[in-house]
């Protein structure tokens, strides 16, 4: 039996269909995903930043960094997060304003505050706030 690693050069893109009995040097092993690459938070969850004083509700998730290189390099190197982890789009708020934030998984924690997020776009994306979590509007789902 052939196990195909879809992340390596010998995967299906290379023409290795996995049919037949390959020679020992042709067998590839499935890779185990890095635990950091698995999203810990979901759409509708309320989270808080570990380093900066803001919280927000998640409205989208990227499996890894998907912003511009300029944006990433603008983050001070001593607090710059890794790129190989999920990144979350948040409707965020702090004491002064509401905005959209793009935050790495390593910098987020679950927010246990039972209060809803006061961002003005929350009602456009979410239908309700139940049990500390937002319910996405059906028309917003993709």
Summarize the structure in words.
The protein has a five-stranded antiparallel beta sheet with strand order 4-3-2-1-5, with no helix packed on it. A two-stranded antiparallel sheet has the order 6-7. The N terminus is likely disordered. It contains two helices and seven strands. A hairpin with a 4-residue loop joins β3 and β4. The protein has 142 residues and is mainly β.
Strand order of the largest sheet: 4-3-2-1-5
Low-pLDDT windows of residues: 1-25
Radius of gyration: 20 Å
Secondary-structure element sequence?
EEHEEEHEE
What is the tally of helical segments? 2
Summarize the structure.
By secondary structure, the protein is mainly beta.
Question: What attributes does this structure have?
Answer:
142 residues; mainly beta; five-stranded antiparallel β-sheet; 2 helices
Layout: helices, strands, pairs:
Blueprint: E1 46-49, E2 55-62, H1 69-73, E3 87-93, E4 98-104, E5 108-110, H2 122-125, E6 126-130, E7 133-136
Antiparallel strand pairs: 1-2, 1-5, 2-3, 3-4, 6-7
């Amino acid at each position: 039996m052939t196990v195909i690693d879809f992340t390596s050069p010998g995967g299906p893109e290379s023409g290795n269909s996995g049919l037949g009995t390959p020679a020992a040097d042709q067998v590839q092993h499935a890779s185990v995903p890095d635990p950091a690459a698995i999203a810990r938070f979901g759409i509708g969850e309320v989270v808080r930043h570990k380093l900066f004083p803001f919280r927000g509700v998640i409205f989208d998730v990227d499996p890894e960094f998907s912003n511009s290189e300029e944006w990433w390099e603008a983050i001070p190197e001593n607090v710059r997060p890794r790129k190989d982890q999920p990144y979350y789009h948040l409707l965020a708020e702090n004491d002064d304003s509401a905005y959209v934030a793009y935050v790495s998984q390593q910098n987020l924690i679950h927010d246990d505050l039972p209060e809803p997020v006061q961002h003005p776009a929350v009602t456009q994306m979410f239908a309700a706030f139940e049990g500390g979590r937002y319910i996405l509007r059906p028309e917003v789902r993709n």
